[in-house]
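U., I forgot to send this yesterday:
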Amino acid sequence: MRAKLLQKEKCITVLNALTNPLLLSVDNEIVALLTGWNAGKIEIGMIRLFDEPVQINEGLQIGLVEADPLVIATEGEMIVYEKNSQHILWRVAQNPDYFLDALVIAADFLTKTGLDIIDFEDVEAAKEAANDCAVTVGGSNYTQFYIMLLGGD
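Result:
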């Protein structure tokens, strides 16, 4: 885990050293990622990030979870709204920086299932990884999103 954190810190250092080509306000790491890099090809499970954040009524949309908007709400919380609705499907993270930390855990788990290191049908392993993600992003209010993402139900 320490190596992953060091890798993340190194990436952040490199990212901060670069200029922001769109001259957008960079309030957090995920906005910096989207505005400084071509993140539109990043997919982790059902999450697909945009090339650039898009301002919508609910906040700043940074991607999709399947067809549903993944949004940094105006209060800073990460939320998935039902497509064409203000109905909240899942609370994702207390803040965007925590979300990136959880994506590292989720990507690691999904990679291991893809390589058959962890059995794809191991629901208990998926629940454990989902709980690790939830703790990382702010607690049990966020567990259901990661259970859905990692196949823990």
